[in-house]
Every structure is written in structure tokens, then in C-alpha cells.
Design goal:
Chain lengths: ~450, ~450
């Protein structure tokens, strides 16, 4: 029997999608990266579907690329030639939501914002909120250890993950972690799987920590600056002053222009950067202090939205930044993260790289974490970035590492950053990472070529 | 050449301690567990000492047991027969403390409270604070993923660990993690080493996250209850109400009597349990709410210390609880952690186990995390707990697992909990844990028989 027929036999009707156009529609993420041609796609609905798929894949030595909503920005879910694209997007059950224990047990296809909304019905929230959270899935967030705007206060996806149910490459089921707030039984397998980009196994359920939602709306400020560096200085001052913002976001002129061109926000010609900051409603002093520090660092204007609707609109514009940038052309998205004290230096290095290589770079940053997204815009007609964009990207990656930073704060390595990986990791780290990979996936069928 | 002579040759003068009494003084931790006889001890002063020791150990196939201050409560640093006890207690440098980036880079022998004090000179703090923090080391805290009183608000040791320098079993140096707040390059090796009890390698430096210290002293309350169950109900109510205590500690009658016998605190006969709660000074409403919830759940008396000195004395008594219990006899210390909603049930189960097996159990709990320390007191003349104590301990472990909990919240598995490990972990977890162990330690010389 041909392998695909054996897979069809092993799964309930309708799970295996063999039409090349249909399977191909699962082959990409949000990057420009050219996928290989998948053998087929599987739209899993249950854990048993995943078990059957992995058993079949091990038997037939077929690579499997797990996939959520395809909103990734690093190529982690891009098809490799001849693979099965294993979609978890239809496993959408919130199996449990316990207000008393402040936890939820969810399947990987749950949309991130849907879980947050379900939690808010009980006065709780699910804190991690990547900009894509209205369309991204929990499974994808787990695979990349996604961050977001609120993680400056509440931490990244790993910080909200207590336990996992994983289907291993050979179809065995591994339960990691716990339902409790603390626990140190054995090695931290949960943390190992979060951020592993589907290279160690397929996550089929997660026990997640919820947090108490603030009782009153946050206080928001928007500050305009005559230079990105000045905005970076304000961020460093806010961190150094011990403010605890709920979010602290920076947008440069290029990003603001892209948003203005789309949404007509009435951008003033002198504004070169904008900071958005929020603090918990119970600590209004923090917002006042942040406004004062913005002014002390050269802000030309500090606005406080008058209504919750105005606040939502402002934050909504920030969440649209990537979509606005995509309207300008094809995008190579970086995700460097640096110690927060050198954020102004990193901003300067990005501007220099743009000038030196004549590259168009729009930057947004989760500035309170030192996490910057320089987005390199290039001609949509090209299959991949031209040489000057790669050169500028290379310079920005190296500058981040020179400043004590990392290649990727929250998007993951995927395919996109593999060529720089050795610069950060070194040979011993590389060797042990591959050793760990081999423990879970001795045949090398789990999302080969990604992450490590 | 005899192996010990080769080790002496490989290290600077004075590092290798061959006198059996001296080496034997490194062989125990705080448990009753009987150590094996070590071959010798090494008092490392530098990373190079550790490298030389591990190269020698690999060459000669000698087991190595890394050790901090020996304050562990699970047998993680207890000698195995013929091992080298590798003490990191003299590697005490705080290599760097950056207020701007809110990080410190420290060696493993730094005393936990010393790092906290160094941070407070800059308005920062090092949050993890096991009760032993005035004598425990950072290295030991990392090895066990130690918790403490403040972790209900600020998380456990892993949550404060950004990166590690590790000497592997063969003497190679592994650098994990980063200096940045976020980062997802490769698998989370940092999280894997934290809590691994010295079974994967020897931590020789750590990049730790500091946090802003509250600007004003916390507000503290002490509530007395007519039963432990009532105190547990108050905890569940406090959690459910969304209070965010800085610490939330429970002591039962037995513990209070032990403290009273030592420190003469004037314990009232009707007091069967006490809760201590603190909230950040900026949120006094939380303390009022917690006091109200204690009264609503049957507290007979709620006190608010009038001065910072009184507060320190009260919290200091809590930190002395284990020492007070030790005055009653030899101790078997459990460390179960349960979902917080079932804390009252767990308290009832402990009382039942004590009654059924005629065992003396004193319990303290980091109640806000659902983490309980039932301490089983037995005759100091016995080499190990008698059968009724083991039976009661077994019953408590099983009850915690039945309630959705875990064997160990913060002390680790060590030797003490190995016999129950399979109940929690299951065969697939066990197999992959051993696979990971083999990646880092193929010869099996790193603290054999602990943790997994």
C-alpha cells in the first residue's frame, strides 16, 4: 500500500488532505520563505489522530511539520519537501477552566485571545498576547514561547505554562509538569517543550496559568519623540526608575507612516517615534512617573486617552503595526532582544545599518523588555530579500549579539535565523541540543531543520 | 599513580581534602539519610578547579556529588560511596550587579541573603528566599529550584534565572541562556539545569534576574484560627478573591508549640493554626481584604504588627519553624504541593494520616502556593524513620497525588522521594529523563541516583 493510503486508512474519514493545492495551503507561515512540497496535510481533531499520524510517520520515516494558524514569523511551520503538514488548528476545546486554581487546560488550536476572553468571564486573564493573538493559536504560542505586549509585566508563554500533554515522534504520550503553582519532580520537560518549535513532539494539550485581571482599566499614555533614540532613552529611564508598566511599546517613524498611510492617524511631520505605555489602574503613580520621564527625555507631546475606547483604538493601532508594514512590501522580520540599558544603542545601530545598506527598516519594539522588531521591507516581486537587505539584517543580528543580546526574543529561530545560530550558541550548546533532540526524535522526523 | 594523588596533582594546593573526617563532614545534608563514604572532598575556588575535577572524574570514572551549604532537605547532596564531594561554597564572588539591567552574575557559593542585601543597596532585591536563605547558597537553590516565602508573588528560582555557566561531566564548559529579559534561541537549557540536582553538570556561575524592591515596607497581618482547616479555608478564599500577597504562610499547632517551647511566644491554648500574610505597601487594600477574609473564615484574632521590628520578629519566627521542629527530634520533611483550592482537603488528609499511624506531624505551608511541609518527627536515636512514620509519609504523598498535586514543590526529589517518583512520573517521563541525563553525563558520574 502506498504510504498516503496507509495514513488515510489509519485516520477517520476526512482528516487527510491530499489535494496538492489544499495541502499546499498549509505549507507556509507569514514569512517569505519558500516551502517544500508536502506529501499531504492532516487536519487533526483529537489526540488519537495525532497518535495515529505519528505512528504512521515513524513507520514510514516521513517528516512531520506541526502547525497552528501559520502566523509564525520565523519559518518554524514552513513545509519541508515530502512532509506531512500536521494541523492542530481544529483541536479547539478549552477542556477545563478553574477559577479557584487559576488554571485552564486547553487544546492547541484554541485561539489565544479566545482563551483570554474565556478567562475574563471569571475575572481572570491569559496574559501572553502576541500581536497576532486574535488569530494565533495556543499551540503555536507554545511552540515559539511567544511573548507579546503584556509580557513585560506578566512574562512569556513559558511563564504561564504548568504542564503539557505531548505526542512523541513514535506516537507515545508524554505528560509533563503539573497543575500546581510549584513543582520540582524531575527535569523541567515542560520548559523544554515550550519554544522547541515542534522539533521534539506534538503538543496536544496544555495546562496554563491564568492570572487575576486588573479590577479597573489601565492608565495609558502616548508620547511623541523627535528621535527614536530619545524614545529609547525614555524607556531606559522608565526601567531604571522601577516603574512596572503593563506594556511599554515603541514605534519608529517608518512604522507610524505605514499606519498613517493605512488608517490616517494625522501623523505630525516632526514625530520620529512614539512610545505607548500602560500601567495597572491600581498604580496610577506609575503612569504619571512614566509621562514625566518621557518629557524629561525630550518627548514633544504626551497624551492620555480620555476613554477606554480611545485607549483600545491606540493599542489596536500598535497591534496592527505588522499588517501596516506588510502593505509596504515583502517583510523580513527580526526579533532581536538586548539588555534594556542598551536599547538606545541598539536603535542607533539599526538606523546605521539601514543607512549603510540603503535598506528600508521599520521598527517596533516591546521596549520594556529590550525586544525589537526591525522589519526589513523589500520588493514583493522578489522571491527572497535582495543582498543589501540580507547585509543589513546580518549587521543588525551581529550588533545585537555584540550588545549582549540574543537573535530572537519571542519569534523563534525557525528557518530564518539558522544561519546566525552558531554565532550565539557555540559548539557545546549545539552538540547538547542535538543530543536532546535525538532523545525525543531518534529518526529525525519532527520538523527537521528547524530551531537548533 | 593512585587516583586521589592524580587529583591532588591536577588542582592547586589545598583544594583536595583527603582526611576522612574532613571529607566526611561534607557528606551529609539536613536529612537523616546515611551517606556513603566519600573518597575525598574538593573545595573549589574557581571554575578551573571544577573543570580539572570533572576531567579527572571522567578519566577515573569517579562519581561526583556537587554541594553548596548542605542545607538541602531531600538528600540531593548526600554522598554516594566512593564519590568526590565537590563543594562550591567557596566560590562566593558576585561578579556583576547591574542596576540598569536588573541582573546579577554570581558564583554558586554566594549566600542567598547576601545577594538579596547586595541588590537592596541599589533599590533592588533577589526574590527567591527559602527559609534557609541566611545559610543556603545560590548554587544549592539553583540545583533544587528553591522556592521560599516570597515566591507566591515573585516565582521560584527558575523564574529568576536567565543564564548559567555549567561545567559538564567531561570538563567542557556550557553557556546557557542570556542576559536579556526574553530569548528563545534553541531549547531552554537554563530551565533544564535549574532543579536538576547536580545530575547534569556543575553550575559555576548564574545570571540572575533582580527585581525592584518595594519602596515602602509591606503591610503584615497575623491571624489565629481554631483549626488548620479554617486557616486553609481562609487561604483558599484569599486566593479566590484575587489578593496578591507577598507571602502567605500557615503554621499548625504543632509548629507553633515547637516555636513557643523555644522562643516563648505566649501561645494561646485555643490557637490551632496561624496565618501570616503580607502585601506590598503600595496595595494596603490587599492586607485589609486578607484580614477580612480571615475573620470571615473563623479567625479568632487578627493582629497587625505596629512596627517594622515587630514584623521582622514575626516573619523571623516563621523562618525558624524548621529549626524549632528539629528541637523535637529527627525530622522527615515532606514538600507536597497541591492545587490551591484543595489546600483545606490536604490539611485534613495530613491530620488523618497522623492520627491513623500515630505519627507526630508538624506542618508549615507556603499556603498561597498550595505548598505544604508536613514534618514527621521521630526519635533521634533511630537511624531512620520507624515504620509508622514511613506509613504516614506514604499516605500523605499519595493523598497529594490523588488531589492533583506533586511530591515536591521546592525541595527536590534527592534520595528521599525516589521511592514515590514512579507514582508521579510514569514510564515515558522516566525514560526520557534518563535519556536526557545520558546526553550530559554518558558515564553516569554526576550525582548518581538522585533526582530522576
Amino acid at each position: 500500500m502506498n504510504p498516503v493510503d496507509a495514513l488515510i486508512d489509519a485516520l477517520p474519514a476526512g482528516r487527510v488532505l491530499t489535494d496538492p493545492d489544499v495541502a499546499g495551503s498549509y505549507a507556509r507561515d507569514q514569512t517569505f520563505l519558500q516551502p517544500g512540497k508536502p506529501l499531504c496535510a492532516v487536519a487533526a481533531r483529537t489526540r488519537d489522530d495525532v497518535v495515529a499520524t505519528m505512528r504512521w510517520a515513524s513507520e514510514h520515516r516521513v517528516p512531520v511539520v506541526p502547525r497552528g494558524a501559520g502566523t509564525g514569523l520565523a519559518g518554524g511551520a514552513v513545509a519541508v519537501e515530502g512532509c506531512v503538514m500536521l494541523s492542530l488548528a481544529r483541536m479547539t476545546a478549552i477542556r477545563e477552566l478553574s477559577p479557584a486554581d487559576e488554571i485552564a487546560v486547553v487544546e492547541p488550536g484554541v485561539i489565544t485571545a479566545d482563551l483570554d476572553r474565556a478567562a475574563r468571564e471569571h475575572g481572570l486573564m491569559y496574559a501572553p498576547d502576541p500581536s497576532s493573538y486574535e488569530i494565533s493559536t495556543i499551540g503555536g504560542n507554545l511552540a515559539t514561547n511567544a511573548g507579546g505586549l503584556r509580557c513585560v509585566k506578566y512574562g512569556v508563554t513559558r511563564d504561564s505554562t504548568l504542564g503539557l500533554e505531548v505526542v512523541l515522534a513514535d506516537g507515545r504520550i508524554l505528560g509533563t509538569g503539573r497543575r500546581t503553582m510549584k513543582g520540582v519532580t524531575g527535569y523541567d520537560l515542560t520548559g523544554l517543550f515550550v519554544g522547541s518549535e515542534g522539533t521534539l513532539g506534538v503538543i496536544t494539550a496544555a495546562t496554563l496559568r491564568l492570572r487575576r485581571a486588573p479590577a479597573v482599566p489601565p492608565v495609558t499614555i502616548a508620547a511623541e519623540f523627535p528621535s527614536p533614540r530619545a524614545a529609547g532613552d525614555a524607556v531606559a529611564a522608565i526601567v531604571a526608575a522601577g516603574c512596572r508598566p503593563l506594556l511599554l511599546e515603541l514605534m519608529d517613524r517608518g512604522t507610524l507612516e505605514a499606519i498613517d498611510a493605512w488608517k490616517n492617524i494625522g501623523l505630525d511631520p516632526g514625530v520620529r517615534a512614539m512610545l505607548l505605555a500602560q500601567s495597572d489602574g491600581r498604580l496610577p503613580g506609575d503612569a504619571e512617573e512614566m509621562a514625566r520621564l518621557c518629557e524629561a527625555n525630550g518627548a514633544s507631546f504626551v497624551a492620555v486617552p480620555a476613554t477606554p475606547e480611545e485607549t483600545d483604538e491606540l493599542i489596536g493601532l500598535r497591534r496592527l503595526a505588522y499588517n501596516a508594514q506588510e502593505r509596504l512590501g515583502a517583510c523580513l522580520v527580526e526579533d532581536v532582544c538586548v539588555p534594556r540599558s542598551v536599547l538606545p544603542d541598539m536603535i542607533t545601530m539599526i538606523e546605521r545599518a539601514a543607512a549603510r545598506h540603503d535598506a528600508k527598516i521599520c521598527t517596533v519594539a516591546h521596549a520594556g523588555d529590550g525586544n525589537l522588531h526591525p522589519v526589513f521591507i523589500f520588493d514583493r516581486g522578489l522571491p527572497e530579500p535582495p543582498a543589501n537587505v540580507w547585509a543589513a539584517a546580518d549587521e543588525v543580528f551581529r550588533a545585537a549579539l555584540d550588545l549582549g543580546g540574543t537573535l530572537t526574543g519571542e519569534h523563534g529561530v525557525g528557518l530564518l535565523k539558522r544561519r546566525w545560530l552558531a554565532l550565539e550558541s557555540g559548539p557545546v550548546v549545539t552538540e547538547v541540543q542535538h543530543g536532546i533532540k535525538a532523545v525525543f526524535d531518534p529518526l529525525g522526523i519532527m520538523n527537521p531543520g528547524k530551531a537548533i
